[in-house]
Design brief:
about 270 residues; alpha/beta; Rossmann fold; seven-stranded mixed sheet; 11 helices; about 45% helix; binds S-adenosylmethionine
Length: about 270
């Protein structure tokens, strides 16, 4: 598959998930975006900000709560941007590798869990830095290699038993893109390829309030599952969720997402 074909498949899977995303993964991603924005090396208050790979708007909301004066969002998936669009900042469909903005347009550029879809996240960081003014900041977060919870396997097994199998785009993202930002060393390498003098940190974000139903909804709403889940009838969907809950069992650890954050001031 060409890179363009792969990119179109990623965007189409995310577009298919939008509503399910915000009902499941959304509550997790909103909190993680707040953690990312809190760690900006420059103040967000009063400035302009770009949300790259904005999805349903987690980082846009975090930036506005932190006092950003103007936020603009871009994503490759029109469906994700369309979700609740009337209450969100202006948005455009665009590729993280070709942002439709002039150099030095924003004070802060945030890419929350989006550059980890790129086989070359360094190129995504360089493009984020290009549109950020000197003295501003780039923040890019990704899942760490040790980001584990048994609900991931429980939901995947329940879906596979119902007929789901991973799409080619998902295999490519998980093998050829995710590892490139999944450790401190990988994050530092990507930042250095982008010419950024970055502070790369590992962060754990706990979700003690998430019950088993919330955990299963998180996984079922992920883009790699959502198109298949959407093809199921209401009863079939409930049966898969019940199977996933049974596979998870009665005892499971509190979810604690493990993330890598690249934070850099642009010179
Ligand atoms: C895991 S979701 C995260 C969404 C949002 N930032 C959040 O934290 O909830 C990843 C998003 O990145 C977008 N994305 C993936 N590859 C992209 C690319 N090359 N350019 C722009 N957006 C991309 C997807 O469409 C999706 O909306």
């Amino acid at each position: 598959m060409t890179q363009e074909g792969h990119q179109a498949s990623v965007a189409s899977a995310y577009s298919a998930t939008a509503g399910a995303w915000q009902r499941g993964p959304g509550r997790i991603y909103d909190r993680m975006a707040a953690v990312v924005v809190e760690r900006s090396p420059v103040t967000v208050t009063g400035g302009s900000a770009l949300d790259v790979g904005a999805g349903t708007g987690a980082a846009s909301r975090a930036l506005l709560r932190a006092g950003a004066a103007q936020v603009v969002a871009v994503d490759a998936a029109a469906g994700m941007l369309a979700h609740d669009a009337a209450r969100r900042p202006p948005a455009a469909v665009a590729d993280a590798l070709a942002l439709p903005f002039a150099d030095a347009s924003f004070d802060v550029t945030v890419a929350a869990f989006s550059l980890n879809h790129l086989p070359d996240p360094g190129a995504g960081l360089a493009e984020a830095a290009r549109v950020t003014r000197s003295g501003g900041a780039v923040l890019a977060s990704a899942y760490a290699a040790d980001d584990f919870h048994p609900v991931k396997g429980a939901v995947e097994s329940a879906l596979a038993a119902a007929g789901w199998s991973p799409a080619a785009w998902y295999d490519k993202v998980r093998t050829a893109a995710v590892p490139k930002l999944a450790t401190l060393e990988a994050g530092r390498r990507a930042a250095s390829l982008a010419g950024l003098d970055a502070d790369v940190v590992a962060i754990r974000v706990p979700f003690p309030d998430l019950d088993a139903g919330g955990l299963v909804a998180w996984r079922m709403g992920m883009a790699q599952h959502a198109p298949f889940v959407a093809s199921l009838g209401v009863g079939e969907r409930a049966a898969v969720a019940a199977d996933a809950l049974a596979r998870l069992g009665g005892e499971w650890p509190t979810l604690e997402r493990s993330i890598i954050l690249v934070r850099a001031q642009v010179h």
